[in-house]
């Protein structure tokens, strides 16, 4: 992934790796007949990834398991995050085949997977089934083409008002920022509103939101800070001080860009430390979850062991 894609990737993953955010996201964007049958108190993030090595170059996924109500078997809800600025009609097919292949390789009964495509690119994405990719094929022949549905969540197709209606205001602010992630002027004009909404979220996620907003928008810092309550202002300043202090001498814009790069690396480091300390996941699973190399995970583990 290029650096621009990595900024989107790290921001979205930090949000949807949070159980409350993933739960609220699922409740709002899964089809009602699915969400009504799920017991969201059982929602659990898994170390699984269904991405092949080739697919990892352009997208990421976060896999959750959730039991059905009435003690019925669990299903897997796979949040597929597509970052391309243009739509790729083969994405879902490639992903589903990769997922089934990985499940089959484990030689266990197949689990139902509900792929959820979260798209926020520039180009329009048309919902397509696999059979739609075959030109001029007669109906009788379609019985030999695998058929499946997926949940398509296109932020660009939602109005800002629809996004703002989310009960989870931090999630609303984040999705508005992602929806307009390629519009620096819009982000600058609406920065105060977004920061006010985001202030209702967890502190650790607020910092990531601030970093993303400042990296994507054309923000006038002094004007923004003067329009915000003191508590939010302190959170912004403390966050930016960590990431752009060294860059201030070369100008705010350059400082923010350099600080964001360091901030992304630091967030990856903290995420890996958390997984090492609180889970029994293997190195390769942690690397896949954090979207880093196994070498990076090993270095973090060595550093972490020295602190003990």
Q: What features would you describe in this structure?
A:
- The structure is a single chain.
- It is globular and about 65 Å long.
- The two termini are 34 Å apart.
- The longest helix is centred in the last third of the chain and has 27 residues, at 252-278.
- It has a five-stranded mixed beta sheet with strand order 1-2-3-4-5.
- The protein is an alpha/beta fold.
- Helix 6 runs antiparallel to helix 8, helix 11 packs across helix 12 and helix 13 packs across helix 14.
- The protein has a domain at 1-157.
- It is built from 14 helices and five strands.
- It has helices spanning 3-16, 19-29, 32-35, 91-105, 160-164, 169-179, 184-189, 191-198, 203-216, 221-226, 230-244, 252-278, 283-290, 294-307, and strands spanning 44-45, 59-68, 72-82, 113-119, 151-154.
Topology:
Layout: H1 3-16, H2 19-29, H3 32-35, E1 44-45, E2 59-68, E3 72-82, H4 91-105, E4 113-119, E5 151-154, H5 160-164, H6 169-179, H7 184-189, H8 191-198, H9 203-216, H10 221-226, H11 230-244, H12 252-278, H13 283-290, H14 294-307
Parallel strand pairs: 3-4, 4-5
Antiparallel strand pairs: 1-2, 2-3
